[in-house]
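Q: Given only this backbone (252 positions), what sequence would you predict?
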């Protein structure tokens, strides 16, 4: 059995090749040192052993013709049917591209459908909310009529809400955007000068307008008055009729 590997000359493989490895493998005979490694190298490169038990291949061209379909070694590298291999690789890439394109189109349709459903749900939710406006975990509603502070709070409570409690700079800016002179849930009616929110918590951060509060015992309820400025709070007589803003917390 012969394993033949060739290298090309300057004239090219089809015209002249010089054999660089030619070794016999004998069964039931002690192999010369180094033969197994070279045989394995031939197998790894060409994927086969060229076998000729009757006659020796005398010309490189004949050996090349016999082994071209499976692969031979030129210049230390295995050469196979590169045209066939390239066609298979191209077909594989086309299949991958087609599959990916199909997947992307399917995903795009699914995303579009979800967006349409979300838009529909948003419209339906807005209809359910009516005059309520969502902001940062709460719903807000500004009245279209005017009432006293106590009447305003009663209206909010009947709706499952209460007068607005402002807990942050962002919420203060949000309330100012309504541009209404309106009651908020702040009062010191229980203890003059000790302002508390309607849930009983003490006022920790304030946005009083300049020189406010200044009404003493005659003005015990808080409102937003100067809404064009960040610090817009004012104290007023609780019996005055103003617009009001209710807040319904969605997450306690």
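A: Predicted residues:
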């Amino acid at each position: 059995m012969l394993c033949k590997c060739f290298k090309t000359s300057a004239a090219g493989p089809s015209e002249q090749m010089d054999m660089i490895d030619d070794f016999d493998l004998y069964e039931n005979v002690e192999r010369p040192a180094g033969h197994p490694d070279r045989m394995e190298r031939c197998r790894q490169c060409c994927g086969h052993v060229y076998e000729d038990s009757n006659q020796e291949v005398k010309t490189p061209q004949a050996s090349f013709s016999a082994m071209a379909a499976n692969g031979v070694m030129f210049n230390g590298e295995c050469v196979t049917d590169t045209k066939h291999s390239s066609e298979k690789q191209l077909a594989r890439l086309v299949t991958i591209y087609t599959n990916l394109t199909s997947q992307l189109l399917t995903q795009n349709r699914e995303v579009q459908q979800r967006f349409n459903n979300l838009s529909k749900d948003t419209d339906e939710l807005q209809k359910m909310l009516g005059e309520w406006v969502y902001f940062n975990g709460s719903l807000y509603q500004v009245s279209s009529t005017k009432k006293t502070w106590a009447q305003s709070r009663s209206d909010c409570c009947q709706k499952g809400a209460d007068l607005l409690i402002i807990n942050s700079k962002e919420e203060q800016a949000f309330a100012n955007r309504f541009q209404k002179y309106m009651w908020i849930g702040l009062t010191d009616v229980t203890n003059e000068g000790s302002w508390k929110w309607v849930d009983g918590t003490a006022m920790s951060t304030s946005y009083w307008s300049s020189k406010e509060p200044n009404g003493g015992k005659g003005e015990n309820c808080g409102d937003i008055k100067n809404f064009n400025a960040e610090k817009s709070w004012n104290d007023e007589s609780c019996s005055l009729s103003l617009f009001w803003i209710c807040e319904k917390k969605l997450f306690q």
